[in-house]
């Protein structure tokens, strides 16, 4: 029997793959034997990662994609299938943090930016991934939500709303496509050592360290720890997990 986290012969797509959780997940899929498509609006950055993976003998493709533009999301999936013939796993990870502002002081433009990437972007990618997976009658999708989907957080209303929306969208799609051999789940990362986490405290390293101290496990999570959860959710080991938002937060939301 093959190890359940062996993705040899599978094709995995990761958005927001230039850094942080997306980069760690793309590398994890590659290490597990998958062909990896790395998508990000930072084309040079993902191409550099793809070149690194190819230098190690892996198959990898970099695609520039702004997920807030549905036509680009559609083209991303189309190119993936044109190059590799199928799509077995997708991690819809691309996202941004909101600029700090109380709700009454937030702007229309900021809401459009955050919702456009974090929520509409997930929908755009998932829509076209699902269309391909329907043709195959197989596949697994994981959407990146947040512990912000479980609570409120003053000053980042658009971000919190977008992540609540991702979980709701995940659960709905999971019910729609479960009988077609497609599993849709999400992850709710807590404080993870990424640039977005630092953006929450406006780059204040002392505040960031203090935030890490408040996590019951005593530290921020590593992007690789989210990658491990994503690979498990996409694997046969999670074959009966449908519509679940898996919280990976070092105990932050337990109390």
From TrEMBL:
CDD domains: SDR_c. Transmembrane segments: none annotated. It is an enzyme of class 1 (oxidoreductase). It comes from the Bacteria. Its EC number is 1.1.1.47. Keywords: Oxidoreductase. GO terms for molecular function: glucose 1-dehydrogenase [NAD(P)+] activity. Belongs to the short-chain dehydrogenases/reductases (SDR) family. This is Glucose 1-dehydrogenase.
